[in-house]
Amino acid sequence: MDRRKRQFGLFLVAVVLSAAALSVLTYRFLRQDEELARQREPGQRLQAVEQARRELIANLEKISLLEINRRVTASESNSGDPADSAIILATPMDRLEQLVAPWKTVSSVGLPSPGFVNNQDTGETLEFQSKDFPR
Questions:
Q1: What whole-number distance in Å separates Cα of residue 122 and Cα of residue 128?
Q2: Cα 104 vs. chain centroid, distance in angstroms?
Q3: For a surface tag, which of 53, 55, 81, 83 has the fewest beta carbons within 10 Å of its beta carbon?
């Protein structure tokens, strides 16, 4: 009987000890994984913002080039009046003729003038109610 108790005790210690060791190691691994994720999160956010910024600037430059080519083609064929074309891109350029992203410029936000508000209301009425898009 003594031998069975000892074998049962050894078996129990082996199972409990290995389960406890696995539990501790799993807990440490999960904590380290959470800490690593917290450390990487700001860097990943910055990378995502930078990637979105690069894509936006590339798209804006592409639109700008398309509009320039369209205007050159229209002026060569004299079939269209460039003054009638819609404004596609309105953004400041720096000294190196590169687009300046809106989030990199500091501007003072002011209230719109009464004339602007009146024109905006008139434009919205013509666009949405009268469906008069050219005006």
A1: 10
A2: 15
A3: 83
